[in-house]
Automatic annotation (TrEMBL), chain A:
<feature type="domain" description="SKP1 component dimerisation">
    <location>
        <begin position="104"/>
        <end position="150"/>
    </location>
</feature>
<dbReference type="GO" id="GO:0016567">
    <property type="term" value="P:protein ubiquitination"/>
</dbReference>
<comment type="function">
    <text>Involved in ubiquitination and subsequent proteasomal degradation of target proteins. Together with CUL1, RBX1 and a F-box protein, it forms a SCF E3 ubiquitin ligase complex. The functional specificity of this complex depends on the type of F-box protein. In the SCF complex, it serves as an adapter that links the F-box protein to CUL1.</text>
</comment>
<protein>
    <recommendedName>
        <fullName>SKP1-like protein</fullName>
    </recommendedName>
</protein>
<dbReference type="InterPro" id="IPR016073">
    <property type="entry name" value="Skp1_comp_POZ"/>
</dbReference>
<keyword id="KW-0833">Ubl conjugation pathway</keyword>
<comment type="subunit">
    <text>Part of a SCF (SKP1-cullin-F-box) protein ligase complex.</text>
</comment>
<comment type="similarity">
    <text>Belongs to the SKP1 family.</text>
</comment>
<dbReference type="Pfam" id="PF03931">
    <property type="entry name" value="Skp1_POZ"/>
</dbReference>
Automatic annotation (TrEMBL), chain B:
<protein>
    <recommendedName>
        <fullName>F-box domain-containing protein</fullName>
    </recommendedName>
</protein>
<dbReference type="InterPro" id="IPR036047">
    <property type="entry name" value="F-box-like_dom_sf"/>
</dbReference>
<dbReference type="InterPro" id="IPR001810">
    <property type="entry name" value="F-box_dom"/>
</dbReference>
<dbReference type="Pfam" id="PF00646">
    <property type="entry name" value="F-box"/>
</dbReference>
<dbReference type="Pfam" id="PF03478">
    <property type="entry name" value="Beta-prop_KIB1-4"/>
</dbReference>
<dbReference type="InterPro" id="IPR005174">
    <property type="entry name" value="KIB1-4_b-propeller"/>
</dbReference>
<feature type="domain" description="F-box">
    <location>
        <begin position="8"/>
        <end position="48"/>
    </location>
</feature>
Length: 158, 307
């Protein structure tokens, strides 16, 4: 495969380069620059400041566990099978972190994965699955059901 | 992080909801207040749902309609707006409805409604309609064609924001039966006449707006002709009925349907689902039903939206 000028070859030259990230739980993690470049929030900082990569870049909203998952996902080129091993909380944390780090591809990937989990599921199932409290009043809920009665005729309960 | 699913930022919830099909989206809206609010102004744009339109049958018993999904699942849906109505056109989830000498756009899944001014028709029997873009678009033009005469076509046209309908006539030919209309390549309206006739109307050329053409299947690219970038699907309901995929019709029911245009799944052209008429097989006829092919979209429109 022919490599294009720019990004690809740059990534190759800088293959050994790593950026140190400091997670919310105080763990310093060395991350390949090609992965860091997907994190717009870090990338823009590095590019503007031409920073010393040995000084840890703080990520006060991302835990080391979540960052591990993100790195694995990117390394595995967003592998569906790998993602299926995530717990619901892990999914949610990766979603929130992807949003915070401004990782467009990862954000789309996770949002689609979560949308797929909701497919053909009843409202009750979704509430149980995601541990969401129904905060509608009985009147509000009845109104919503009445408006779209047909939707509730036939959905999987499991 | 200890955020709950119900406390996710609104824009993240919106992004998830935006990837949902119609039924899943409507369920999403019923989960909790936050999810409801996050999705309240969305019109999900999941491309996967666009290729196979659903079928909505109405005109049976009052406002009770039948909705058949692309998976041939049948739902009963109550739509008072369709009681006594006739659908003249269907495009991108919007229906153009005529009822009691008035015309309006209607999105049956969000119940969004946009009234059109001063309907030029008293009744609709041999009429077909089309609109060039969704009714919230600045470019939207609506045409209604009266084809009750086989020698003269009468056309009414209304541009977005206008209050008065313009009109135009076309004669000098013998027309067969026009039941399907569409807007073609952002340029002109096409009216499919019988099996192979095509009448075109270009609203932006002051002279020579009308044209009468013949369509044929051809692999010969050398002849002086224009290649149409759409495929036409005939007898869609009849075939689904014959294959027992849709079981809405009794032998003594007749039905007339309004077609639609969807992208072809190849992505290379449009797919036109022709309007069709199915006569009752046995007499006496019991019900004269109506139906329309519709993209299963939830369309949010601001309550202050007008034509």
């Amino acid at each position: 495969m022919q490599k294009t000028e720019g990004e690809e070859s740059k990534a190759e030259n800088e293959e050994v380069k790593q950026v140190t990230l400091m997670t919310s739980d105080g763990v310093k993690m060395k991350v390949e620059i090609s992965i860091v470049y997907e994190m717009e929030i870090v990338r823009s900082f590095i590019e503007v400041n031409d920073a010393d990569h040995s000084v840890p870049f703080p990520l006060p909203n991302v835990s080391s566990h979540t960052l591990d998952l993100i790195i694995e996902l990117v390394k595995n080129e967003y592998d569906d099978e790998f993602m299926k091993t995530f717990s619901h909380d892990e999914l949610k944390e990766v979603l929130v972190a992807a949003n915070y780090l401004n990782m467009k591809t990862l954000l789309d990937f996770i949002a689609t994965a979560i949308a797929n989990l909701l497919e053909k599921k009843s409202v009750e199932f979704i509430r149980n699955f995601f541990n969401i409290v129904n905060d509608f009043t009985p009147e509000e809920e009845a109104e919503i059901r009445k408006t779209n009665e047909w939707v509730f005729q036939d959905l999987d309960e499991d | 992080m200890t955020e709950k699913w119900s406390d996710l930022p609104r824009d993240l919830l919106s992004q998830i909801a935006n990837g949902l099909g119609l039924i899943d989206f409507l369920s999403f809206r019923g989960v909790c207040k936050d999810w409801n609010t996050a999705s309240s102004q969305l019109s999900p744009d999941d491309n996967a749902i666009l290729y196979d339109p659903w079928f909505l049958q109405y005109g049976g018993e009052g406002s009770e309609c039948s909705l058949v999904s692309d998976q041939n699942k049948c739902y009963t849906i109550n739509l008072p707006e369709l009681d006594g109505a006739t659908c003249l056109a269907s495009y991108e989830g919007w229906l153009l409805l005529f009822v009691d000498e008035s015309l309006f756009f209607f999105s049956p899944f969000s119940k969004a409604r946009i009234e059109l001014p001063s309907c030029p028709l008293n009744d609709v029997s041999d009429h077909v309609g089309a609109f060039s873009a969704v009714p919230t678009s600045e470019d939207c033009m609506v045409v209604l064609l009266d084809s009750s005469s086989d020698t003269e076509l009468r056309l009414f046209i209304l541009r977005r924001g206008e209050n008065e309908w313009g009109h135009s006539c076309f004669s000098g030919y013998k027309f067969s039966k026009i039941t399907t209309a569409l807007f073609y390549e952002n340029k002109e309206f096409h009216f499919l006449d019988g099996d192979s006739g095509l009448v075109t109307f270009n609203p932006s050329t002051p002279t020579k707006q009308w044209n009468k053409l013949y369509m044929r299947m051809s692999t010969d690219k050398s002849s002086p002709s224009t290649l149409l970038n759409y495929m036409i699907r005939k007898n869609t309901l009849q075939m689904k009925h014959d294959r027992r995929e849709i079981g809405l019709l009794n032998a003594n029911d007749s039905i007339s349907t309004c077609g639609t245009v969807v992208p072809h799944f190849s992505g290379l052209c449009d797919w036109i689902i022709r309007s069709e008429c199915i006569e009752a097989k046995t007499q006496p006829e019991s019900r004269r039903l109506k139906g329309v092919w519709i993209q299963p979209r939830y369309i949010y429109v601001s309550p202050t939206q007008t034509w």
